[in-house]
TrEMBL record:
It comes from the Eukaryota. Keywords: Oxidoreductase, Transferase. One of its GO terms (cellular component) is cytoplasm. Its EC number is 1.20.4.2, 1.8.5.1, 2.5.1.18. The keyword S-adenosyl-L-methionine does not apply. The lineage of its organism: Eukaryota, Metazoa, Chordata, Craniata, Vertebrata. The keyword Oxidoreductase applies. Pfam families: GST_C_3, GST_N_3. This is Glutathione S-transferase omega.
Length: 239
């Protein structure tokens, strides 16, 4: 069961987590929540999704997680977990079938180091996109973004692999993907022109079953973004 339409202030809380499932509190257009949905899909974990209106959050959700963050995950035992990397690591450990993280401690450390590097890139996507919309000069930030993306490209070149953890998709690929899905929305797709291996990686990611199951079209992203920019985000857009 997935409650596609979002729950807002005044709404009744959903029932208990279905037996044999795990519940994800999400928002359909949130890239951080998409990380968790990618992992749930890739690992074939039975789950339901409850979408939250992030502008008008339900009282029961704020009691559950006073920070009001998505993704938040609730287990059958009522345990609550939030922050997307923590949720995804938990899912990989608790559901050991089709492991996404490397088995070696060094392999895990490598992925966490790559994720730490990528976490410095994420704010640039938003700064540049917002700056362009405001008519600001974002050339310095765009140069920094290209430099950081080139380092990711070098990582793939040095490893001589299709993906960041080898020749099949692993956790780190899913952790980074949501922002690459949105490159055209950020008006930054051209930043991959000088990073051919990274560009090829993005093309290969589009062929993945979990990516296909969780992504939105460019037009849908743009339409939601327009409602967000107008101050009236339509979290149910397209339903």
């Amino acid at each position: 069961m997935s409650a596609e339409k979002c729950f807002a202030k005044g709404s009744a809380a959903p029932g208990p987590v279905p037996n044999g499932h795990i519940r994800l509190y999400s928002m359909r257009f949130c890239p951080f929540a998409q990380r968790a949905r990618l992992v749930l899909s890739a690992k074939g974990i039975k789950h339901d999704v409850v979408n939250i209106n992030l502008k008008d959050k339900p009282e029961w959700f704020l009691e559950m997680n006073p920070l009001g963050l998505v993704p938040t995950m609730e287990t059958l035992a009522g345990e609550l977990i939030y922050e997307s990397p923590i949720i995804c690591d938990y899912l990989d450990e608790f559901y050991p079938e089709k492991k996404l993280l490397p088995s070696s401690p060094f392999g895990k450390a490598q992925q966490k180091m790559t994720l730490e590097h990528f976490s410095k890139i994420v704010p640039l996507f938003y700064k540049i996109s917002m700056g362009k919309k405001s008519g600001d000069d974002v050339s310095v930030q765009e140069a920094e973004l290209k430099n950081r993306l080139s380092k990711l490209n070098e990582d793939l070149v040095n490893k001589k692999t299709k993906f960041f953890g080898g020749d099949s998709i692993t956790m780190i690929d899913y952790m980074m993907w949501p922002w690459f899905e949105r490159l055209e929305i950020f008006q930054l797709k051209h930043c991959l022109d000088s990073t051919p291996d990274l560009k090829k990686w993005a093309e290969l990611m589009l062929e993945d079953v979990a990516v296909k199951a969780t992504m939105h079209s460019v037009d849908t992203h743009k339409a939601f973004g327009k409602t967000y920019a107008e101050g009236k985000p339509n979290f149910d857009y397209g339903l």
